[in-house]
Each structure stands twice: as C-alpha cells, then as structure tokens.
Amino acid sequence: MTTSALRPAALDHASSCALELAYLQPGLPISGDVALRLIRCSGEDLPALLAAARAAKENFKPGVITYSRKVFLPLTNLCRDYCGYCTFRRDPGQPGAHTMTPEEVLAVARAGERLGCTEALFSLGDKPEVLFPEMRATLHHLGYKSTLHYLEAMCELILRETSLLPHPNPGLLSAEWIERLAAVSPSMGLMLETTNRALLAPGAAHDNAPDKVPAKRLRTIEEAGKQRVPFTTGLLIGIGETPEDRIDTLLAIRDLHDRYGHIQEVIIQNFRAKPTIPMAHVPEPSAGEMLRTVAVARLLMPNVNIQVPPNLNAPYYEGLLDAGINDWGGISPLTPDYINPEKPWPHLEQLRLRTESKGLQLRQRLPVYPEFLPAVTSKPGLLSEKLQAARDSDGLAKSERPA
Ligand code: SF4
User: Can you give the residue ranges of every domain in the chain?
Assistant: First the structure.
C-alpha cells in the first residue's frame, strides 16, 4: 500500500505539495504520482518536503548516519564505453592509463588496513578487453582470461590476505559472474543511473556506451536479486534526464527491491562538470534539484538506505542530512576519489562534527549493511568468517576508528 491510497478523494486534485505531505504515513512509501508532484515542489514547499523526508529517515534508522571507511582500487581504467561525463576512463596509451598489478592491489589494501579501513572498493572500466588488444595482452601476461577473472582473483586475494572486505563495481554482469563474485565479496554494485533510453542517442551522455542500456543494467540488478546478493545501485542526476525520468528510475529500483529485497542502498549521485569531458559545458544539477531528488527517493523508499557522496556536494552536507539520507558512502583516509579526483573526500573529523551538528551520530559500517549480513553469513566459508570477524553486535564495523 502507498500513502496516496490513504488520501481522501477530496484531495485528488489538490495542487499543493503541502497537502500531499500532510497525509504521509510513517514507513509507508508514496506513490509514483505523488512523487512526480513532490519533485517539482516550489521553494516555499521545500522545507515541508525535507521535514517529511527527515522524519521518514528517523523512522527507519533513528539518530545515526553511517559511512564506509574504504580504499579505492581502480583495478583498470581502460573501458570500452565512452560516457560523456567520465574522467576516469582511458584508452590504452593515453596518459594515466593503468591496470593495477596484484602487488599494487595488496599494497594499497594493506595501507588502508593500517588506517582502519574495512572496505576494498574495486572500480573499473567495463570489459576493456573486448575493445582493446592491449588489455587482452595485459590479462594474458597476468594469467587471466578476462577482466572479470582478474577481478575475482583480486577480491579473493584481499579476502585471504587482509581484513578488508571487497565490494566490486565491474559493470554489467551475467548470472554466472554474479554468483562467482558473490563468493568472494559480501556485496557488489552497479549504478542504474537512469532508465531514459534517449541518453543513448548520438551526442547524449550515453552515446557510444553499450553497457549503459537501461534494460541491460536492470537485468544485472534483477539477477543479483534472484541470487539474493546485497546490491548497491543508484541514480546519476543531471546527465540530460528530466525530473520525471528520475522518478521512473527510482520506481524501477523500488520495483526490483519489492520483488527481491536485495537493494541494500540507493546512491543519489550528482553530475559534476569537468573541463576535459565532452559534457564540460552541461549545467550541473542545482542544490535544490539534489535536495528534491534525495527527499523524494527517501519517501518512495522509506526503508531503504539512501546515500549521497559528500565530496560531490560540499558544502551542502547539512541540507542532505535534512533531505533524509542515512549514509555518506565510502570515504577513504588514503586514496583519492578516482572517479572525481578534483573533489577530495571531506576530512572525517569535519564530517563527524557536521553530522553531529544535526543531532546525528556518525558510525562506521561495513560494505554490506547490517540488515543484509545474514544473507552472507548464513553461507559457511571464508567470506562468512571474515564478515563475522569484522562486525560488531550492531552489524557495524568492529574496528571502528574515531572519525
Ligand atoms: S562511467 Fe564507467 S562505463 Fe562509463 S566510460 Fe567511465 S568507466 Fe566506462
């Protein structure tokens, strides 16, 4: 049931967002129609929308905001896609093109371990060996058939040799690869970004990005659901989609979560323009757009973890807390954000102080959220043992360091 189902019929034609908000029920999701009205709410109604979203967050996870202390491992920045907003990807031979060696992976992970990190986030380009003979040669030299085979081995290496827990983001995955990676990592992720197929058109954000076809991404997320793999996904806003597209994307994620219960978090990421990208002159989404999208996401999914990366939203941390997020995502005391290298992560002490200024406690979580731990720990083996060793009685990081 959605809250709109509880609304008196007399309000069906009301135009005021305030009226919609007056009939929200704690813990119950709003309908798509209500979300469409709220995401376009006026500045006058915005404080009421934020208050409703914050109340929904407090009903879900009171008093706490989490983050994951991580190292960022850009296993390879070669990628067969050419997303218009990406500064991460390289072609072979371009300055900065790099595939990490196992020694590099382990060295970064061990340095992170010393700094209290509990997550090894693997970010990498999608299937570079399909396009580039140079990547095929690199993989052959390393002794692997594909980038995914190499990623699987590096997740296993991290799991075996360190106390960190891998969280891979390798792009589209088949059922077989979800199963293989789930054996060596407690959670994984794939940003849906948007359900708008028009962004695949020539000149649009996903032109020449075959792995960004929404139906293919939905298939990967659904397959993870069928296998009960705790899964991170989310939206990228400001890449040419409309507010209606954002609602459609959120509803697609909610639908998969309703069917499989595996969406452990939804990231609302905002496009940031950079001088070197094809979309350098595309306007970034405003703070108001961001707040409306986050608040509506919270009301559409009142019992799902909602995350916003703080480094892409400085200095608006307090506003995001008001909009109902309950997680700041992965933050590294060691490695830069290789996807947005010009946006440093906030100092953790600063983040803690600003989180506390809104009456919330900052806690360190693992890459898998507490409520999803049983899905992983119920299967005996090294992964389960490592997770049990890393968790505290709340399901958060046992080795929590002061922020
Ligand atoms: S955003 Fe991801 S898929 Fe797109 S070009 Fe960059 S690395 Fe490749």
Answer: 60-390
φ/ψ (deg, to 5) at 13: -105, 10
Distance CA 364, CA 116 (A): 10
Distance 81 CA to ligand 1 centre (A): 6
Ligand 1: residues whose CB is within 6 Å?
A: 79, 81-83, 86, 88-89, 125-126, 209, 211
| pTM > 0.70: yes or no | yes
Instruction: Give the rounded percent of residues in the chain with a pLDDT score beyond 70.
Output: 92
- The CATH number, out of the four listed (3.20.20.70, 2.30.30.100, 3.40.50.2300, 3.40.30.10), of the domain defined by the range 60-390: 3.20.20.70
Q: Which of 73, 81, 90, 239 to mutate to test the pocket of ligand 1 (most atoms within 8 A of CB)?
A: 81
Distance from the CA of 336 to the center of ligand 1, in angstroms?
17
Residue 80 CA to ligand 1 centre (angstroms)? 8
Tell me the C-alpha distance between 115 and 25, whole Å. 42
Read off the pLDDT of residues 317-347 as tens digits, 9 standing for 90 and up. Answer: 899 999 999 999 999 888 766 666 666 667 7
| 28 CA → ligand 1 middle, Å | 35
pLDDT level of residue 10 (50, 70, 90 thresholds)? very low
